[in-house]
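pasting for the record
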Amino acid sequence: QVQVVESGGGLVQAGGSLRLSCAASGIAFSVNVMGWYRQAPGKQRELVATITSGSSTTYADSVKGRFTISRGSAKNTVYLQMNSLKPEDTAVYYCTAGRWWGQGTQVTVSS
């Protein structure tokens, strides 16, 4: 059974940093694309960043220069380093591993 588990969310002041981690288990192969999405209250879920197995990355314009996505050395792990956080970054952050999704981790940025 595939499980995608995120960790590292929490409450931080504006300007602070958080690092999200994600590990997908139960997948026999290394997925090509892993990523992070987020959903703020009352808003649609949106792409934050993706990374391929070849380390090609994409970012939402709103996080470019502040967030960094990276793959871990263990199979099907991914991280999201978030710096210079803003209140508008407050959302539930979801990890994706191929077609599989995690349950999400809450990130709250106070002003």
